[in-house]
Design brief:
Two copies of one chain form a homodimer. By secondary structure, chain A is α+β, with helices and mostly antiparallel strands. The first copy, chain A, is built from 17 helices and 23 strands. Chain A is globular.
Chain lengths: 586, 586
């Protein structure tokens, strides 16, 4: 037996007991006549003491040579500590060591195993097993475990059945790129790894399973942006014999439960917002509603004056920045530079100061008088002391730009409090989305999403206007879940696939099994999937998903710790009937 | 809202209530003036009634046309049933229907949706979504869910942390073949899918996580035998600062908990058996100990007579078949044919009848007298009325043959009661196993398994004799789990890899990250993995894992429902820098 207690366990009540502890040497202090060492494990830290008077000389020497991160087992007696440390759970006691066994030595770690480490991101990823020893990383992993358990127990109690769907499935040329897996036994053929278990969960509904969930890995071979992972985890759910309202209520219940269980926060009914309203008020389909700064559309009050920039714009829209009138001219110029950065892309910014005396001072006073500016303040809800920031241009672009500015300013103003939680349903998404590059429409959610009743006829004439039975759950400006009511009849599914550009043959080859299934009594059904990585990071008050993944990949999709991916040897390639066709050799 | 109640819910106490139900038409009986239809969902069946007197004519017509597996929503009143059916939970009531909405029609299903279906295996796999509607399949999936939940909650309460390890990892040329995944972003390189999260769970121990578990998919590209799947599920566990005894106790606790929670069976301490004893007594490292028929080794009492077959054999070994003396000569001849089948491979079988009068009658009476045969009975534990069956030959082969015979006879004698559970630890496995084809030793468990203390020196001289800190959990003749105490220092790991034929370079390339990790304070650790598919099927009283997998693959590794794997299009191959190198085109 390696230990009688953990290093987080001993208290004053244990004084006098003989104990055995194991763990890592966090640090030691050697004063010659007395040596203290901190012994660490997952559960805490316990102070060991060796002193000239009570410790044999040989063991004093041994103690003097215990290096950082050595793994040791010690036996000894729990004694009262002279200088108690009320910051430590075990701070009332220490262990007078009678025996030390070195279980394993350690090289000096490449970075300090402390809450605030001196290791950079790359080094910590390469030695992730050492990074995991640090409290913040370990706590994140345990936090994730708690969220997963809470999700499973909640859904299970609600009658959902956890069903494992297969990972070796079929390539479907929609959405992102698939990762594929060559089959040795089926020459020249490939499996694909699931981008989501979408079709399988629908088939489970056709199979009468009624309520399904799974916490499941999904795979997308996308060019990685910051904070995207090629493999990620979904809480995948589906229900049959339900309407949109049932789904919203069920998963609002789950989210409320998590906020209460995990964060101790009680939230009432979640607000719901139409997609069109979210875009108009926040320029974004996942608005952060922890703070105001709602958009005010100024076309009616800012156009038809002599200011050509506004007159020629499709949309003139502004926000009131609370207390922004305190910004110096230089600060405002910097803000203008910020919106002109390529990542935001605005051509410029008009502003109007709301002075303490009720007057206004704008950057376009040549074109607008005080009455005009008062109307701007009214529309944007600006108060005395605020700064009104206005962008103009094409509706979609200018909304995205102003949304970026709104989020940046909120961040700077400290309005994005990670301990505050503001969930929101965004509903009535468009069914289709125009790809401006190709001019083609593609499914905004996925090809199995049903259009709103009676709107399918619009597909031919006004495809962009068709609304879907689709909904997203937004938390603090992040989409944490999304789903839809599905199509459950073959005819509608065929129309959808046709409008998405599938030939009959392609539709048959890719989704024939699903279309067949719809002919054998498919019930009405729908569902939702949460992004677990994102959900956990937001509940944890952080925004970087990588911090909540045990072994994340970098933004080249590499695991730098194990050095994967890696070349295959020729024999393996031969067995798989493959040869490399590298671009360099073309 | 599609329903106010499920179809398993209504009782006499609901009589008089107006309800809405949804589900599938299981069957209907049309007597002209009255029509009954059974409405089915996941929860049960409720009888619908339409009759001339109370049902409008139009609806009678509608009811007459409800086909099997149509999806309908009905509204109506709960009424008392005239002829109650005590076999159905809802058998006291029926629904007098006032409104029928057909939610979806159904073609006639290719097989009957009944507990005993007329559909063959292939057809049921192709239409798995219909197969899942059948009670036995659905119940198996829900049973699996219950086992998973019980496992997770037990381990979580014991302090284990569920950590998700990556799926896109590195090819390791050991054990079975890997499935690989070409990387588009890292040209010419491949990920591998995990055969198990072995190295990652060890790194989590190095990372101080102490107790880890995960229910996780694993992948092996093996030539599929019956009842093997290319993807399968493991309950994967690892602990640090533990000895073998701690692991055995912990997972004995888990298994005992499952048997109690899931099967209502209380089991005391699990017996433990040395690998060598299991092989000697049962010819098998996963003995079914629900029944006796232990091996009796007869060399001492059967050799050195004039019977050359026995004299020339390395091992002469027999079992007593309870009541086997009742077999006719013809039946015994059939048994001899059975052991001579290529799958078993014996050259013949000697037998001795234990007559009621205490005398013996053997097939080799020419060589052995009654005293000799009495000794055989003593050694095999045969009693009056039994039949002693004896095989002889090379030790390993003859043990396997007699083990097959023992299991076959037990099956025929009804001794393998699926409701009886007999768990067993098999311990002290050999570290290495000789591959008779290549003459090389390979790791019996895996290359990370530690040898018994003090035995590592034997590796050079008697590699086959080295025992490992390795153990299997056996239930009813099936290995349901296995694990080991791991090597946790770099030097020992290097020696092991060398003995397994890895050059320093290969060891470095494949396992360098793990060896590095061992240099930074790796704690003693070990673990175990359960095969969830197998565990669930045995707890469920069945032996076919396919019945407990939602969407299994056939023994060509194909999913016949979605028709995967499938060819990739050229564009995808190009993006992956691959070209096919099919054998046909060579």
């Amino acid at each position: 037996m390696y230990r009688t207690h953990t290093n987080g366990e001993l208290r004053a009540s244990h004084i006098g007991q003989e104990v055995t502890l194991s763990g890592w040497i966090q640090k030691s202090r050697d004063k010659g006549f007395i040596i203290w060492a901190d012994l660490r494990d997952r559960y805490g830290i316990t102070q060991l003491v060796f002193d000239e008077e009570r410790t044999p000389k040989k063991m004093m020497e041994q103690a003097a040579h215990l290096g950082r991160e050595f793994v040791v087992q010690v036996k000894g007696k729990v004694i009262e500590r002279e200088s108690k440390n009320s910051n430590m759970a075990t701070g009332d006691i220490e262990i007078l060591v009678s025996e030390v066994i070195i279980l394993n030595k350690s090289l000096t770690p490449p970075f300090t195993i402390e809450d605030e480490t001196d290791g950079g991101e790359d080094l910590r990823m390469k030695y992730r097993y050492l990074d995991i020893r640090r409290n913040p990383v370990r706590e994140n992993l345990i936090f994730r475990h708690k969220v997963s358990m809470a999700v499973r127990n909640y859904l299970s109690a609600e009658g959902f059945v956890d069903v494992e769907t297969p990972y070796l499935i079929k390539s479907t040329p929609e959405g992102a790129r698939d990762f594929v897996v060559p089959s040795r036994m089926n020459e020249g053929q490939f499996y694909a790894l699931p981008q989501s278990p979408q079709t399988f969960k629908q088939l489970l509904m056709v199979g009468g399973l009624d309520k399904y969930f799974q916490i499941v890995k999904c795979f997308r071979d996308e060019d990685l942006r910051a904070d995207r992972q090629p493999e990620f985890t979904q809480i995948d759910c589906e229900m049959a014999f339900i309407e949109q309202e049932d789904i919203l209520n069920m998963f609002e219940g789950l989210t409320r439960h998590l906020l209460k269980e995990i964060n101790g926060v009680e939230i009432g009914d979640f607000p719901r917002m139409q997609y069109d309203d979210a875009m108009a008020k926040y320029g974004n389909d996942k608005p952060d509603i922890r703070f105001g700064m709602e958009f005010g559309e100024l076309n009616a009050v800012a156009q038809h004056k002599d200011f050509g920039v506004f007159n020629n714009a499709e949309l003139v829209v502004g926000i009131a920045v609370p207390g922004g009138n305190s910004y110096t001219r230089k600060e405002i110029d910097k803000l203008i530079d910020w919106v002109k950065r390529p990542q935001v892309g605005a051509l410029g910014m008009v502003y109007s100061r709301c002075n303490d005396d009720g007057s206004f001072k704008s950057s376009v006073d040549k074109f607008y008088d005080q009455d005009d500016l008062a109307k701007w303040a009214e529309v944007t809800g600006a108060k005395t002391g605020d700064l009104i920031c206005i962008l103009s241009g094409d509706t979609n672009k200018v909304r995205a730009q102003l949304s970026a500015l709104r989020m940046e300013l909120a961040e700077r103003l400290g309005l994005r409090n990670p301990k505050e939680f503001a969930p929101l349903w965004v509903i009535d998404f468009p069914l289709l989305e125009l790809d401006e590059e190709t001019g083609h429409y593609h499914a905004m959610h996925h090809p199995f999403t049903s259009p709103k009743p009676g709107q399918i006829e619009l597909l031919d004439t006004n495809p962009g206007d068709v609304k879907a039975n689709a909904y997203d759950l937004v938390l603090n400006g992040n989409e944490i879940g999304g789903g839809s009511i599905r199509i459950h009849d073959k005819a509608t599914q065929a129309i959808m696939l046709k409008h998405l550009g599938f030939s009959d043959e392609e539709a048959r080859a890719q989704f024939g099994f699903l279309m067949d299934a719809f002919e054998y009594g498919a019930p009405p059904h729908g569902g939702l999937a949460f992004g677990l990585d994102r959900l956990v990071s937001i509940l944890g008050g952080q925004e970087t998903i990588r911090d909540f993944i045990a072994f994340p990949k970098n933004n080249r999709g590499r695991d730098v710790m194990i050095d994967a991916p890696a070349p295959l040897d020729q024999e393996q390639l031969n067995e798989l009937n493959l040869q490399l066709n590298l671009k360099k050799n073309d």
